[in-house]
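Much of our argument rests on the idea that a fold can be written as discrete symbols. Part of our work consisted of pairing the sequence of a single chain with a tokenised description of its backbone. The amino acid sequence and the backbone structure tokens for this protein are reproduced below.
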Amino acid sequence: MSDEPFEVADSSGLTDADWSEIGELKQAYKKGGVEALKKAMDVLIGKDPIRFAVVARAFFPDMFRQAIKDAMAAAAITEEDLREFARKRESPAPDQ
């Protein structure tokens, strides 16, 4: 069993910058425990919320996926809405 408090569960799509942030979070925990980890996560959220989401997904993919589904349901966004949005984004803009 690893002595790490948490492990990357899904490394797909992680960039070098993501791995750097993961290393910083692990180092914060190693040096100062849960409180230091919380502070490091708060810093990352403030600095780069998108990278925080990517890193959080790497550690907790199932929880992250469920949180997205819950937020979509609360906002009444359906899978069909997402498909339609994707289709619109892929279509070339009409000439004006």
Notes: The chain is about 70% helix and 0% strand. The helical segments are 16-47, 49-59, 61-74, 79-90. Residues 16-47 form the longest helix (32 residues). Residues 1-59 form one domain.
